[in-house]
Amino acid sequence: MIYLDNAATSWPKPPQVIQAMTDILKRGCANPGRSAHAMARQTEDAVLNVREAVAKFFNIKDPLRIAFMPNTTYALNAAIYGVITEGSVVATTAMEHNSVLRPLKTLESRGIIGLETVEPDRYGRISVQSIKKVLRKGIDLFCMTVSSNVTGAIMPVTEAGRICRELGITFLVDAAQGAGVIPIDVERMNIDMLAFPGHKGLLGPQGTAGLYVREGIKIKPFIQGGTGSFSDRLFQPEVFPDILESGTLNVPGIVGLGKGISFISETGIEHIRLKKKKLLTMLFEALSKEENITVFSPGPEQNSGIFAFLVHHMDSSEVSYILDRKFGICTRSGFHCAPLAHRALGTSDSGLVRISPGYFNNETEIELTIEAIRSIARRKL
């Protein structure tokens, strides 16, 4: 099997990720912050260590401003519903995932918010000029992805952050695509809230994610419940991270996430980026000139690690099905939970085939994938 669906979930995981999760389950995995006994304190220390590692990785000054969550969708919803008030005006881009679009469209349909959208070019790229046309004083929140999960196009987050800071707009960044491949610095990029997954580019397990909220941003809890703190009170604590962390944390997953971040730091994020760039370059050079293939991703220099394409006169699901059943190659087809992106790209009827190499893929796997796609495109099955 050749696994090329790393934009959905990275695989395989570094061995130390699996080992760390196994170790804490064997050693003792009590509820952090709930009890005073040794095992609970040990678990709490393990979670704090990962919180500090995440803070260092994203240049977050206060690790306690990071709340761990089960996935990025949850984190984005917590951010959006947490800061929105009736009458808010929100801006976003047409390249966002449904984790952003659905809550925003729901709020708009209920008359709670006004919503404006920044449109991309034919490769799904958002320009600084298009952002400037939409953002203005009076907009309360701007939601933007680091990189498109459809095309891999890297977005101008740094420039958008500077514009938001100048205009007094709260800047929410979705790092579902890009974290672990593109350096993210919340201070330099003027990011007010950052939602990130553990199971994609950070090489951790599924069921892990987080939300960073800059000090000074007022946020309401998305859910309320047990936090292990202020347990004698009937209302949710307002301190971080308790305000956003109700219920038992996924401690084994969080510990695994910490080891994924350690692997990236030790390997070097630039080294990881160059490896993925090399594999992407092979795909572009071999397939972009094929007569029966249209490529929808920007080149490797502006791409976080996705090669999106269509074979002429074939639905994307059919191509992915053949790649899986005949060649043992795992890809993603369809609409990638991003309907506005496909509308902008003109692929709302067919969807796209998405190939997303990871750090652990190799050149031989990419060469075999190229040959498989060529055979499909040339109808030589």
UniProtKB/TrEMBL annotation:
Keyword annotations of the record: Pyridoxal phosphate, Transferase
GO molecular function, one term: cysteine desulfurase activity
Record flagged with keyword Transferase: yes
Residue ranges constituting the Aminotransferase class V domain according to the UniProt record: 2-367
Reactions mediated catalytically: (sulfur carrier)-H + L-cysteine = (sulfur carrier)-SH + L-alanine
Cofactors that this protein relies on: pyridoxal 5'-phosphate
EC number: 2.8.1.7
Keyword Transferase found: yes
SUPFAM superfamilies: PLP-dependent transferases
Pfam families: Aminotran_5
Family per record: Belongs to the class-V pyridoxal-phosphate-dependent aminotransferase family. Csd subfamily.
PANTHER family on file: CYSTEINE DESULFURASE (PTHR43586), ISOPENICILLIN N EPIMERASE (PTHR43586:SF4)
Protein name as it appears in the record: cysteine desulfurase
